[in-house]
Amino acid sequence: MIDRFTDTQLERLHNCPWCSAEGANPLFVENGFPYVECAKCTLIYLSVRPREQHTGILYEDPGYRIAIVPADAERIGENRLALLGKVPLGTRIFEDGAAEGAFIAACRKQGLRADGCDPSERAVGRAKRLFGVDIAQNTLEGCALQSGSVDVLASFNLLSHLYHPWDYMKEAARLLSARGVWLLRTGDRTGRMKRIRWGKWSAPEHVFHYNRRVLAEMMAAAGLQTWKVQ
């Protein structure tokens, strides 16, 4: 996998991107990319990774997420909506990294206002083709949504892909209404799961992996608080 990138398309990190500490404990190498764990804050990150502007080499590959089954995506979208419980009509929902648009489709099926975005041209096309959902080909920041304009911000399996997750959290806090909720899903690489999935962490698309402590620290720094973890 690492051979798909030239030396100039890669960057090497000598400090933790979150806490700036120099010490990091090597974990393993996956697809040619080394994962390390910060000795201070315990954030797991790739010490060698593609430069952010070259990640399109991964996401626009014709084989990326090509195996998604529409029926499975529809079921997952409905299950994710169920996590919110009873959602009043008029609730403003926005999904970032909407992929094939299944969650948005599930929301609209219940009569809810739901929109979303995804930076991938292929994802935008899949959402239209599979579920008849029009999503913006853009990033969350690029959509320029108004402050306090979102009641539910959804981002599933997105945080590990982001190069500046702490800035993303600040943007999430800006967009949410006074009682707004950020519906977030990301992997927890601690305890039992760390052993079971060892070496299968989707490098290099997943540049970060979190435990609950470091995730809570980042959220608190952005002005967010944890409501429920499951």
Task: Describe the overall structure.
With 230 residues, the chain is an alpha/beta fold. The strands form 3 sheets. Strands 2-3-4-10 form a 4-stranded antiparallel sheet, with no helix packed on it. A 4-stranded parallel sheet has the order 7-6-8-9. Helices cover 27% and strands 22% of the residues. The protein is globular and about 50 Å long. The mean pLDDT is 92.
Summarize this, please?
With 230 residues, the protein is an alpha/beta fold. The chain contains 7 helices and 10 strands. The chain has helices spanning 56-59, 70-82, 102-109, 121-131, 165-175, 191-196, 212-221, and strands spanning 10-12, 24-30, 33-38, 44-46, 48-50, 92-96, 113-117, 150-156, 176-185, 208-209.
Give the structural class.
Answer: alpha/beta
What is the overall shape? globular
* Major sheet characteristics: 4 strands, antiparallel
If you average the pLDDT, what whole number results?
92
| Separate helix tally | 7
Strand order of the largest sheet: 2-3-4-10
User: CA-to-CA gap between the ends?
Assistant: 33 Å
Return the string of H and E elements: EEEEEHHEHEHEHEHEH
Q: What fraction, in percent, of the residue positions are helical?
A: 25-40%
> How large is the radius of gyration?
18 Å
Extended strand count = 10
Low-confidence stretches: none
Query: Strand percentage, roughly?
Result: 15-25%
List strands and helices in order, with pairings.
Blueprint: E1 10-12, E2 24-30, E3 33-38, E4 44-46, E5 48-50, H1 56-59, H2 70-82, E6 92-96, H3 102-109, E7 113-117, H4 121-131, E8 150-156, H5 165-175, E9 176-185, H6 191-196, E10 208-209, H7 212-221
Parallel strand pairs: 6-7, 6-8, 8-9
Antiparallel strand pairs: 1-5, 2-3, 3-4, 4-10
Helix pairs in contact: 2-3
